[in-house]
Design brief:
Layout lengths: L3 H5 L15 H4 L4 E6 L6 H13 L4 E4 L4 H4 L9 H12 L3 E5 L7 H6 L26 H18 L5 E5 L11 H15 L2 H8 L26 H29 L5 E2 L1 E2 L8 H5 L5 E4 L9 H15 L5 E5 L18 H11 L4 E4 L25 H20 L9 E4 L2 H7 L11 H14 L4 E4 L10 E4 L7 H12 L3 E4 L19 H7 L1 E9 L6 E3 L2 E4 L1 E7 L5 E4 L9 E6 L2 E4 L2 E2 L1 H14 L13 E6 L2 E6 L5 E11 L5 E8 L4 E6 L2
Parallel strand pairs: 1-2, 1-9, 2-3, 3-4, 4-5, 6-7, 7-8, 10-11, 10-12, 12-13, 13-20
Antiparallel strand pairs: 14-17, 15-16, 16-21, 18-19, 19-20, 22-23, 23-26, 24-25, 24-26
Helix pairs in contact: 7-10, 8-10, 12-16, 13-14, 16-19
The structure holds beta-D-galactopyranose.
């Protein structure tokens, strides 16, 4: 078994970004349709029934083995592959491809019993026991060694199986660990980063509260403390955790890639999840995949989905991406779990395709009868094949088959806008000791994305250090922490003729979470025409700041504009009366508050228009989303009342086969996929 030291040397940093096989090896020109399939929960007779129904529903791909470790390795080192051999053959014989998962997210009970150091601990030192799932200590040499061994054997056994189309590593990597094993790995990570303790003490500002370290062994993960933990220690711990999990991913990826260099590899993201820096991770995957569970009762569920689609498409950077999991009906982890009303599953599935997905898959194929998720929906619900859920699934499968030849591998068009997103900024902005806990970073990003979505503007996401020159408009909802390179990148973007809009609390801290002189970086103040940022004025949850023409939420700032600012929209009344709420200098805009949704939409729509951005279609009724993918125009109606969408020219709706001239009528959750008539 390798030691922790040996494992530490498998650091990804030194190796170049991963360039692996493409998804087309898996999709072969189709939109994949299917879901997680857990046949170990069912007698083998049911498998035959499953396959019959899968064919009926047009299922082309199932993800197998996600939670099969105890079945595959019932005792340490044993291998039980017979059932999986039979299953792989059965699926292949029926033309269904397999995304084969490494089972490493849920170790068998024997592992924790025999090797307690494989169990993670929370910040209070409590063990996360087996009996649930995802109870693995990411930095444990023992865990990693067992994970590597089962991965190696799976790859050797199934690498040449004709059903295999893709590898799925682990599942939603999401464990934090504050154990001694993690502490040792954290110290190694810190030694790599800082080299000397002096450098760490400086970066963490340990002069504050007598925190200076004299030896490395004294440095710990940010465990439960009497009062607020050191924020830079917390920030580095989040960076470390993302990296440690990524090491686990890369180790398994490299094993399967050695056996099957032609088979793409993915690992499914939880969307908008703090634990993994998705920009870093996505670059190491062949195919980016995501799990998405909007609340059917959320009136902006469709906008949330659009955000996740845009984010995942951008993380794939022009490459393919998949919905690895969604729910055909209710989930079972909210307070109250609502089913999807008739039509909503179809709408959100086709929306994913519109916004670029090359696979629409579910958790899970057949609803479980036992275990913690027996009330979570499946494509085949407890009601069986006659149930509404399965009937809708069948319809979606049939429609995807219709669309596949026209859509698969084509690109979403109109990506002139980038919304900047960064995990380091997110992590740092969530710290204890901040001025307001009335909002979090995802909520602010979501507010800006919603404004763009409602303004019918298709947006991408980008990292603040990416090349931004191709975008006409760059939106920074908030980036509390920015590196020098990112700041220079933003300034260069504006100098190069780009339009930049930034929300409040941006450019406050450097990469060690040290507040920049003046409370906001000098280069940014210069860019936006801010002479002095006197004070931050956070707002209470129900408080509004009156601004000329709108009302601000969450935050306000006491700003003195520089002489060279071009335009100012002032606060009205209150302490900030007459001071600038919005500033514009040339093409750079700064908003020191978050306007209410309608005002934000109007503002961003105006700025987008000024930047030369055209919506995919004019005159859309409220609630209808229009997206162009390849040569097709998708119209997605998120409301329940019938509307007519004006569409100039002559088209054919690929879903109905009917001609469309001048306009198309969409009923409740209706969708049209239009191709220009010759
Ligand atoms: C995902 C997970 C699945 C299933 C699903 C339920 O987070 O990957 O295994 O638990 O949630 O919504």
């Amino acid at each position: 078994m390798p030691t922790d030291k040996e494992l530490a040397s498998t650091d990804e940093e030194s190796s170049p970004p991963h360039k692996g096989p493409s998804m087309s090896n898996a999709t072969r020109g189709r939109i994949l349709f299917g879901g997680d399939y857990n046949p170990e929960q069912w007698p083998e007779e049911t498998w035959h029934e499953d396959v019959r129904l899968m064919k009926e529903a047009g299922v082309s791909s199932v993800t197998v083995g996600v939670f099969s470790w105890a079945r595959l390795e019932p005792t340490p080192g044993a291998r039980e592959f017979g059932w999986l051999d039979r299953l792989m053959d059965l699926l292949h014989d029926n033309g269904i491809g397999v995304v084969l998962a490494t089972p490493t997210s849920s170790p068998p009970p024997w592992m924790g019993r025999l090797h307690p150091e494989t169990l993670p601990r929370d910040e209070d030192g409590r063990i996360e026991w087996w009996g649930g799932r995802q109870h693995f200590a990411h930095s444990s040499a023992v865990y990693r060694s067992y994970a590597a061994a089962i991965t190696e054997d799976l790859a050797a056994r199934y690498g040449s199986h004709p059903a295999l189309t893709m590898w799925h590593i682990n599942n939603e990597y999401c464990t934090y660990d504050w154990s001694d094993t993690a502490a040792a790995a954290f110290r190694r990570w810190l030694q790599d980063k800082y080299d000397t303790l002096d450098a760490l003490n400086t970066a963490w500002g340990t002069a504050f509260w007598s925190q200076g370290y004299d030896i490395w062994e004294g440095v710990l993960p940010p465990r439960h403390a009497h009062y607020m933990n050191n924020p830079t220690q917390v920030l580095d711990f989040k960076r470390f955790t993302s990296d440690a999990l990524m090491e686990c991913f890369v180790a398994e990826r490299d094993i399967v890639a050695r056996h099957t260099p032609h088979i793409p590899v993915t690992s499914n993201f939880m969307p908008f999840w703090q634990g993994q820096d998705a920009w870093e991770w996505a670059g190491r995957e062949d195919v980016v995949s995501v799990d998405i569970y909007p609340d059917p009762r959320d009136p902006f569920g469709g906008q949330y989905s659009a955000l996740i689609h845009d984010m995942t498409r951008s993380q794939a950077r022009g490459g393919p991406w998949m919905i690895m999991e969604q729910a055909a009906g209710p989930v079972n982890w909210r307070g109250v779990n609502h089913p999807k009303p008739h039509g909503l599953n179809r709408l959100w599935s086709l929306q994913a395709v519109a916004r670029g997905a090359d696979a629409v898959c579910y958790f899970q194929w057949r609803q479980s009868r036992q275990g913690a998720e027996k009330f979570h929906s499946g494509m085949v619900s407890h009601a069986g094949e006659r149930g509404r859920t399965f009937q809708e699934v069948k319809r979606i499968g049939a429609e995807l088959a219709l669309l596949s030849p026209k859509v698969a591998d084509s690109q979403v068009r109109g990506d002139d806008v980038a919304v900047l997103l960064d995990w380091n900024a997110w992590w740092a902005s969530q710290q204890a000791g901040r001025l307001s806990s009335e909002f979090d970073y995802p909520a602010v990003v979501r507010a800006w994305h919603r404004a763009l979505w409602e303004a019918n503007t298709t947006a991408s996401f980008a990292h603040p250090e990416h090349d931004l020159s191709a975008y006409k408009l760059v939106v920074v909802p908030q980036l509390y922490l920015l590196t020098d390179a990112a700041i220079d990148n933003l300034a260069a973007y504006v100098r190069g003729g780009g339009t930049l809009v930034s929300g409040f609390l941006t450019g406050v801290a450097d990469e060690d979470d040290r507040v920049r002189p003046g409370g906001m970086d000098e280069r940014l103040r210069e860019l936006f025409g801010i002479r002095t940022l006197h004070e931050w004025w956070p707002l209470d949850a129900d408080e509004r700041a009156d601004v000329e023409g709108f009302r601000g939420t969450l935050w306000s700032e006491e700003i003195e504009a520089a002489d060279d600012v071009d335009a100012v929209v002032p606060y009205k009344g209150g302490e900030l009366d007459g001071l600038p709420a919005v500033l514009r200098k040339g093409r750079a805009w700064y908003l020191s508050t978050l306007p209410e949704p309608d005002a934000l939409r109007t503002l961003i729509a105006g700025i987008a228009e000024g930047a030369g951005i055209r919506p995919p279609l004019d005159g859309l009724p409220a609630g209808v989303e229009a997206v162009r993918r390849g040569d097709l125009l998708f119209l997605l109606h998120h409301g329940r009342d019938t509307v007519t969408v004006p569409v100039p020219g002559r088209h054919r709706d690929l879903l109905t086969g009917e001609d469309v001239t001048g306009g198309v009528e969409l009923g409740r959750y209706g969708v049209a996929v239009l191709e220009a008539a010759p």
